[in-house]
C-alpha cells in the first residue's frame, strides 16, 4: 500500500505470533526513526531494547501489560534523554539547564516524533505495534530496572511483532472537530461530539472482538475526572526535572 493508506490503516496490536525480530531489523528501524525532526537537533531520546526475558517479564508487570510482552517479537522502552546532552555540555565546561518545562516538552516531542517514525517503518514491513503508556505507572521501579540515570525518564514502552490478526481501525474524531480556521471555535463541539458518540457506539457494539456499549465523551469524562499518575511530577523531579 502507499504511504497514506499505510497511515490510515494503523491499529494497536496486543497479540503476536512470537516470531523474533532480528538485530539487523531493529537497527534498520532505529536508523529510520532517527531521521525524524528534532528541536534544535538535540535528539533527546534513547531506546532500551529489552532482550533479557526476566526484565521483559518485569517490564510487563510494572506497566500492567504482561500479556502482550509474552508474544512480541521485540520489546522496547522509549526514554526522554538529557544525560547525553549533559555530557556534551561538560565537554565544553558548561552545566546544561535540562530541568525546565520547555526542555521537558522538547524531550517529549523528540521521543514522540522518533517513535512514530519507528512505527511507520515497522508497519511498512508488515509488523504491528502497540504503544504502552503504562510504563509511567511505575516509572521509578522501571528506571531502576534499566539503570536510567539522572536526566533520563521512561515515556512509554512499545511491543512490535507479527500480528496474529488485524483489528478494525477505530474511527477518529471528525476533521471538523480538530481543524479550526483562523481561530479556535469551541461552539461547534456540542453537535460534533454527539455525532461522534453515535459513530463510536456503533463501532464498539459491532467490532469483531471486545464488544461493549460505550461512547467517546463518556470514556473521556470517566478517564479525566481523576488525576492520572499524580506521582509523575515527583518522579520527574527525582530524575532532575524540576520544572523551573
Automatic annotation (TrEMBL):
Keywords: Flavoprotein, FMN, NADP, Oxidoreductase. It comes from the Bacteria. InterPro entries: Flavin_OxRdtase_Frp (IPR016446), Nitroreductase (IPR029479), Nitroreductase-like (IPR000415). Pfam families: Nitroreductase. Residues 8-161 form the Nitroreductase domain. CDD domains: NfsA-like. PANTHER family: NADPH-DEPENDENT OXIDOREDUCTASE, OXYGEN-INSENSITIVE NADPH NITROREDUCTASE. Belongs to the flavin oxidoreductase frp family. This is Nitroreductase A. It comes from Solibacillus kalamii.
Amino acid at each position: 500500500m502507499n504511504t497514506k493508506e499505510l497511515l490510515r490503516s494503523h491499529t494497536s496490536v496486543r497479540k503476536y505470533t512470537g516470531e523474533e525480530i532480528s538485530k539487523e531489523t531493529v537497527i534498520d528501524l532505529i536508523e529510520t526513526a532517527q531521521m525524524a525532526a528534532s528541536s534544535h537537533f538535540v535528539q533527546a531520546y534513547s531506546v532500551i531494547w529489552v532482550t533479557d526475558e526476566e526484565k521483559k517479564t518485569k517490564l510487563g508487570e510494572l506497566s500492567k501489560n504482561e500479556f502482550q510482552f509474552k508474544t512480541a517479537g521485540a520489546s522496547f522502552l522509549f526514554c526522554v534523554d538529557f544525560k547525553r546532552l549533559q555530557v556534551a555540555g561538560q565537554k565544553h565546561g558548561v552545566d546544561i539547564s535540562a530541568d525546565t518545562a520547555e526542555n521537558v516538552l522538547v524531550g517529549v516531542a523528540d521521543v514522540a516524533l522518533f517513535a512514530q517514525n519507528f512505527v511507520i517503518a515497522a508497519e511498512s514491513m508488515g509488523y504491528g505495534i502497540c504503544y504502552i503508556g503504562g510504563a509511567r505507572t511505575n516509572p521509578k521501579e522501571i528506571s531502576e530496572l534499566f539503570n536510567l540515570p539522572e536526566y533520563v525518564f521512561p515515556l512509554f514502552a512499545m511491543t512490535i511483532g507479527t500480528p496474529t490478526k488485524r483489528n478494525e481501525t477505530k474511527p477518529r474524531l471528525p476533521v471538523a472537530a480538530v481543524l479550526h480556521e483562523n481561530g479556535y471555535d469551541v461552539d461547534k463541539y456540542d453537535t460534533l461530539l454527539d455525532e461522534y458518540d453515535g459513530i463510536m457506539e456503533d463501532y464498539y457494539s459491532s467490532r469483531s472482538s471486545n464488544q461493549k456499549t460505550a461512547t467517546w465523551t463518556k470514556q473521556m469524562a470517566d478517564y479525566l475526572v481523576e488525576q492520572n499518575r499524580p506521582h509523575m511530577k515527583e518522579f520527574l523531579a527525582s530524575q532532575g526535572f524540576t520544572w523551573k
